[in-house]
Automatic annotation (TrEMBL):
Protein name in the entry: ACB domain-containing protein
Source species: Letharia lupina
Example GO biological process: fatty acid metabolic process
Keywords: Lipid-binding
Family designation: Belongs to the ACBP family.
Amino acid sequence: MVAQTAAFKKAVEESRKLKAKPNNDELLELYANYKQGTGEDFSKATQPGTFAFQEKYKYNAWKKVAVEDKVTPSAAQQHYVQLVEKLKASYGFDA
């Protein structure tokens, strides 16, 4: 596992306190950057079955960040924090 910055840990907590649920694309972006930011190894991820659509979307989002874009865990943490700040501005936030 990768060391998590204080800003990343705070953003993870704040993401749970948004006043409205982000759209599916935003949720997938959060998921992918969270998985990459925590240092989980994509190569050990199990590819979902044919009809596991939600898991397939999540797997593909993480694959894009980890394999195609080659985002480092620290960069993924920064992206996650920036995305949560954007979502807080869009959806509101319960402090």
